[in-house]
Design brief:
The complex is a heterodimer of chains A (601) and B (127).
Chain A lengths: L5 H8 L1 H10 L3 E6 L4 E4 L1 H7 L3 H4 L10 H6 L1 H10 L4 E9 L5 E12 L5 E10 L1 H27 L5 H14 L7 E7 L5 E8 L4 H13 L4 H14 L2 H9 L1 E3 L6 H8 L3 E4 L7 H8 L3 E9 L2 E9 L9 H52 L3 H30 L7 H24 L8 E3 L1 H11 L1 H6 L2 E7 L6 E3 L1 H18 L4 E10 L2 E8 L6 H4 L17 H11 L3 E7 L3 E9 L14
Parallel strand pairs in A: 13-15
Antiparallel strand pairs in A: 1-2, 1-5, 3-4, 4-5, 6-7, 6-11, 7-8, 9-10, 10-11, 12-14, 15-16, 16-18, 17-18
Chain B lengths: L2 E5 L3 H14 L2 E5 L2 H11 L3 E4 L8 H11 L5 E5 L15 E4 L5 H22 L1
Parallel strand pairs in B: 1-2, 1-3, 3-4, 4-5
Helix pairs in contact in B: 2-3
């Protein structure tokens, strides 16, 4: 601040010019004498406050004060401040215009001193910040709303349980920062989507409870989830009346006589007053038992899926437009959450269906496989057929051949004809007999894995020795029995052993492990062979697929088939150059006495 | 001349089939088990293989599988005493499945059909 006082400055530039300058300032410039009367009133002040300069000069500036400011004696305080030599910068206060509007203003003032240094008055510059204030308030409100939405969003994130979602939404409506509403009710659309039914409600049941809850909330900042925990107890135990109310709430959406239904369909949040309502809405309002309530629709993907109803039944507080805005925002968040949760439920249902279908398909497949393979009886029949058919084919075949080549007068024709005939007869009998002996699906026997493995290893003893494959067996003596066809299991083990051998053309070691695994038995065949590269792994069980120079490519296919027949699983772990481990899991037989238990040697 | 590889572990049947098929005009090569058959496959390069299923060592189905993995266009006819293998999916890979009988008419007929249809597909793929 320069040494020259404003009045002194006036002398420097010339009084007229000085006043002219003041007048041109955009702010309202007012100079008050030490007794508070107006010494100067700029045209800016005229425009802002609506009083002309000639009206204000030598008059009191009090008309500009709001009743509150007048009673607090602002003018006196400002003067005192100036007298004490103090400046004021950007002091926020209010002023009344001539036509009764209240303005928010920023006041900057400095004291005026005479040439002798005595206090003469105060020089004030006032700026209208009403518009800014309004914008600021709107911004604050918006930020506040967004933070509510954000918090609800975070609380809902990862919550797919519909009930938890609904609870959180209602907590947000009632107990969220700012305590918007006393009570909130959630209605959801039923299956065909045309009727909304009350599903959940939250709120204190009486003023005492209300006071207690809100007291607690105001003292301890809490997250929505923490609030929910607090509410949950009161909901479950005490709030029977509220729960009863919500269950009675029903709204038919396509009812044109219902103002509520129309409002919901319009998609906008609105406030309803009970006394203005007609049936059928009046009935709903009377169930709620409040004078006014707000309602906001929940919609997703173009359909109405519910509605949020909120009121101030306890405090009776007037529902403001800001409250409605928050409700609308929450309803939007809620819509998405409810929709997601329902989609999630639907997804879960579909997945269970798929799972059930898969299980069913597998069961049918197993039935087909069972019918397909040879049973013990079938195998015996096949053996018999082979043993008899081959000689018959030879006998009859040669006889036919001779017959065909015999001269028509050859005496042998007769006997040969007989042979051919009789052989045909026998073949016919065979066909009839064998076709009747359809392979029966065998009863699942109670089978012990360990002896089968030992037997298979013994069978391949020579081959293993020749191939320089060292076998180590680690068979759990307490291994439970499995329900299986022992021949098929034997075949499976043989194939797995052969497969391991083929993987180790230069020799190596093969480890076979059996161990119980929950309600299954686990078999591991680990070799130190070539390993199976990633890109081939998915194909090794395919028929006729083989990477070896000799080998049908069927061994593992058969293994997989047998595993599947028995309801088991097979897994492969492999590393190229290190080896492979095949792990077979077969369900163990429960509660049966193990007749076949034999000691492991 | 069309060469047929015939695989059967029964000596008498081998003799019978060779006689009968030679009369039909084929050149017949005999094998008495799967291993033998695989060896002869490479050496003789037959135009068609007739396979018994139940044999010592590797059975007919596995022999067929190994043959097919070498050349999956090889015509194979299963000639067996077993009727139940018909239902096994493995046997579907064969071009025909004949149940052994003293009456060789069916076998001869199937051999003829398979060779004929192969000749046709070869012709159409060559053109």
């Amino acid at each position: 601040m320069s040494e020259v006082s404003p009045l002194g400055a006036a002398e420097v530039v010339g009084r007229e010019r000085f006043l002219d300058l003041l007048d041109r300032l955009p702010q309202a410039v007012v100079i008050l004498a030490e007794d508070g009367t107006v010494l100067f009133w700029s045209s800016g002040a005229e425009t802002l406050f609506g009083y002309r300069s000639d009206e204000m000069l030598a008059a009191s500036a009090d008309p500009l004060l709001t009743p509150q400011l007048r009673s607090s004696g602002e003018t006196a305080r400002l003067l005192a401040h100036g007298r004490a030599g103090g400046d004021m910068r950007d002091f926020e206060t209010e002023r009344l215009t001539r036509d009764g509007r209240t303005l928010s203003v920023l006041l900057t003032q400095s004291p005026l001193r005479g040439p002798d240094g005595s206090f003469q008055g105060i020089f004030q510059a006032l700026t209208d910040i009403s518009e800014h204030k309004a914008l600021l308030r709107a911004l604050e409100r918006r930020v506040h709303q967004l933070s509510i939405v954000k918090e609800i969003g975070e609380a809902l994130y990862g919550t797919m349980d519909l009930d938890e979602v609904l609870h959180l939404i209602l907590v947000g409506v009632t107990a969220g920062p700012g305590l918007r509403f006393n009570r909130a009710f959630l209605l959801l659309a039923d299956e065909n989507g045309s009727v909304l039914r009350g599903r959940l409600a939250i709120g204190p049941s009486d003023p005492e409870e209300a006071h207690r809850i809100w007291q607690e909330l105001s003292q301890t900042p809490m997250t929505l989830k923490q609030m929910l925990r607090k509410y949950e107890r009161s909901l479950a135990e005490t709030n029977v009346p509220l729960n009863r109310i919500v269950r009675e709430l029903v709204l038919t959406l396509d009812d044109d006589t219902s103002g509520l239904a129309t409002a919901i369909r319009s998609g906008m949040a609105s406030v309803f007053r009970s006394e203005e309502m007609l049936d059928p809405d009046r009935d709903l309002a009377s169930r709620l038992g409040t004078g006014a309530f707000a309602i906001a629709p929940l919609s997703a993907r173009g359909r109405t899926i519910g509605a949020l109803l909120a009121d101030n039944a306890i405090t009776g507080r007037e529902i403001q437009s800001e409250d409605l805005e928050v409700l609308q925002l929450l309803a939007a968040t809620a819509s998405a959450a409810v929709d997601n949760s329902r989609l999630y439920e639907e997804l879960g249902r579909r997945l269970s269906h798929l799972e059930a279908a898969r299980v069913e398909a597998r069961r049918s497949q197993q039935a087909v496989l069972r019918a397909e393979r040879l049973s013990t009886i079938g195998e015996m029949a096949a053996l018999v057929a082979h043993d008899i058919r081959n000689p018959l084919a030879a006998i009859g075949g040669f006889a036919r051949s001779l017959l065909a080549k015999a001269r028509h007068d050859d005496a042998a024709r007769g006997p040969l004809g007989v042979i051919v005939e009789e052989v045909s007869r026998l073949e016919g009998i065979l066909t009839k007999v064998l076709d009747r002996a359809r392979p029966e699906p065998p009863d699942a026997q109670t089978v012990q894995m360990n002896p089968i493995i030992e037997e298979a290893v013994k069978l391949l003893e020579e081959e293993l020795r020749d191939g320089r494959v060292r076998v180590s067996l680690s068979l759990d003596p307490g291994l439970p029995a499995i329900a299986a066809d022992s021949d098929r299991i034997f075949e499976m083990v043989l194939n797995l052993l052969r497969n391991a051998m083929q993987a180790m053309p230069m020799g190596g070691s093969l480890t076979v492990l059996t161990l119980p695994a929950g309600d299954a038995v686990e078999l591991q065949f680990a070799d130190t062979g070539l390993g199976i590269p990633e890109d081939i792994r998915s194909r090794i069980f395919s028929p006729f697929f083989t990477t070896k120079p000799t080998g049908s490519g069927l061994g593992l296919t058969i293994v997989e088939q047998i595993v599947r027949e028995h309801g088991g699983t097979i897994d492969l772990h492999s590393a190229v150059g290190i080896g492979s481990t095949f792990t077979v899991k077969l369900p163990s037989r429960k509660h049966e006495a193990d007749h076949d238990q034999s000691p492991v040697g | 001349m069309t060469k047929v590889l015939l695989v059967d572990d029964e000596k008498n049947l081998r003799t019978l089939y060779q006689s009968e098929l030679t009369d039909e005009g084929y050149e017949v090569v005999l094998a008495n088990d799967g291993q033998d058959a695989l060896r002869l496959l490479d050496v003789e390069k037959p135009d068609l293989v007739v396979l018994d299923i139940r044999m010592p060592g590797i059975d007919g189905l596995e022999t067929m599988a190994r043959m097919l993995s070498r050349d999956n266009r090889l015509p194979v006819i299963l000639n067996t005493a077993y009727s139940s293998y018909r239902e096994s999916f493995l046997s579907w890979s064969a071009d025909a499945y004949v149940i052994k009988s003293s009456d060789l008419t069916e076998l001869k007929e199937k051999i003829r059909q398979v060779l004929e249809s192969r000749a046709e597909t070869e012709k159409s793929s060559a053109s």
